[in-house]
């Protein structure tokens, strides 16, 4: 089985984007599994026509991307590959990616995950798409985590139990943390990997996506923040500092003395500081985004206190 690569694609109502995704994988992998989560646009029939093995999730159970990925991984278990390419249905695989990633595994024998450059297909369509494109451009080299697209050693992923089904966000960094604790390494290489279509065209979409990030920070810190990696502790604290503690401090200071309201100037000052690096639009959205992250974090903590689990936070 040495060198065999299979692929797991997940999606819902991705339409033409799914067809492009499946076409980009043809001829590059041995077997193609598509896990559908309740599509109503003909995605199941289209994937079957494209030659993919289709798994339709039981939508009576709470859906997460992690659960969908695990379903795809389990479908490969009877005849397991050495590597599995995980990819979202709104992404298209670069034709040179598999070769580049295999070389990276040869260069780094301890590697269990290799990822490359995920780029937005239409970064010029909106400032939100442009921000996502910048977000995907992570540093090259030894990494702590990957995103939704990556080539992984199948046995290593299954040995740690795969993804956590119950995570509604942040499932890849959490999996990578467990893989690293098991002795594996994660590498980001300087090679194009996928084209992604976030389709972030409205402020509300970006806000919900950022709320989801805040939820992921809070849950990740609750799960693994006490470990030596301090998983997402800094990101969680940053969200609560700027999105909760900061506003409360402004109000408290203003009620004590009128000059206390001047503390609110810390926010435009932060915008000015960040704008010197990346521009005004990016800086404003980063600062505003702290409030969205805080909302997601507070929502997680409230649900945890009440013994509830939040459903998926969707932005498309």
Topology:
Elements: E1 5-11, H1 16-25, E2 32-36, H2 43-49, E3 53-56, H3 65-75, E4 83-88, E5 91-93, H4 97-107, E6 111-120, H5 127-136, E7 141-143, E8 150-153, H6 154-159, H7 171-181, E9 185-196, H8 203-224, H9 233-256, H10 266-278, H11 280-306
Parallel strand pairs: 1-2, 1-4, 2-3, 6-9
Antiparallel strand pairs: 4-8, 5-9, 6-8, 7-9
Structure in words:
With 316 residues, the protein is an alpha/beta fold. The chain contains 11 helices and 9 strands. α2 (43-49) links the parallel β2 and β3. α8 (203-224) packs across α11 (280-306), α9 (233-256) packs across α11 (280-306) and α10 packs across α11.
Q: CATH architecture of the largest domain, please?
A: Alpha-Beta Complex
Low-pLDDT windows of residues: none
**CATH homologous superfamily of the largest domain, by name?**
Spore Coat Polysaccharide Biosynthesis Protein SpsA, Chain A
Instruction: Note the run of SSEs as H and E.
Output: EHEHEHEEHEHEEHHEHHHH
CATH class of the largest domain: Alpha Beta
Strand content: 15-25%
Kindly provide the radius of gyration, computed on alpha-carbon positions and rounded to a whole number of angstroms: 21 Å
Number of beta strands: 9
Total number of helices: 11
The chain-level mean pLDDT equals: 95
Portion of residues within helices: 40-55%
Q: The CATH topology of the largest domain is what?
A: Spore Coat Polysaccharide Biosynthesis Protein SpsA, Chain A
| Shape descriptor | globular
Structural class: alpha/beta
Distance between termini? Answer: 38 Å
Q: Main β-sheet: number of strands, strand sense, barrel status?
A: 9 strands, mixed
Number of domains: 2
């Amino acid at each position: 089985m040495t060198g065999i690569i299979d692929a797991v694609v997940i999606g819902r109502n991705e339409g033409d984007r799914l067809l492009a995704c499946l076409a980009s994988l043809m001829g590059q992998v041995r077997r193609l599994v598509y896990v559908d989560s309740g599509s109503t646009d003909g995605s199941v029939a289209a994937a079957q026509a494209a030659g993919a093995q289709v798994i339709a999730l039981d939508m009576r159970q709470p859906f997460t991307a992690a659960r969908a990925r695990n379903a795809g991984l389990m479908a490969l278990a009877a005849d397991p590959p050495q590597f599995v390419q995980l990819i979202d249905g709104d992404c298209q695989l670069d034709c040179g990616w598999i070769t580049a990633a295999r070389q990276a595994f040869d260069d780094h024998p301890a590697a269990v995950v290799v990822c490359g450059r995920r780029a937005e297909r239409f970064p010029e369509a909106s400032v939100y798409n442009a921000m996502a494109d910048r977000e995907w451009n992570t540093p090259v080299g030894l990494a702590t985590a990957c995103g939704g697209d990556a080539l992984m050693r199948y046995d290593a992923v299954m040995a740690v139990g795969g993804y956590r089904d119950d995570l509604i966000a942040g499932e890849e960094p959490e999996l990578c943390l467990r893989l690293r604790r098991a002795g594996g390494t994660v590498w980001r290489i300087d090679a194009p990997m996928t084209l992604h279509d976030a389709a972030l065209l409205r402020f509300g979409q970006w806000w919900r996506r950022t709320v989801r990030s805040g939820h992921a920070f809070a849950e990740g810190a609750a799960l693994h923040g006490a470990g030596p990696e301090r998983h997402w502790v800094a990101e969680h604290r940053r969200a609560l500092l700027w999105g909760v503690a900061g506003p409360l401090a402004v109000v408290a200071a203003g009620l004590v003395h009128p000059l206390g309201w001047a503390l609110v100037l810390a926010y435009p000052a932060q915008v000015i500081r960040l704008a010197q690096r990346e521009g005004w639009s990016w800086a404003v959205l980063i600062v505003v985004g702290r409030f969205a992250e805080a909302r997601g974090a507070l929502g997680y903590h409230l649900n945890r206190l009440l013994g509830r689990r939040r459903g998926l936070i969707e932005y498309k």
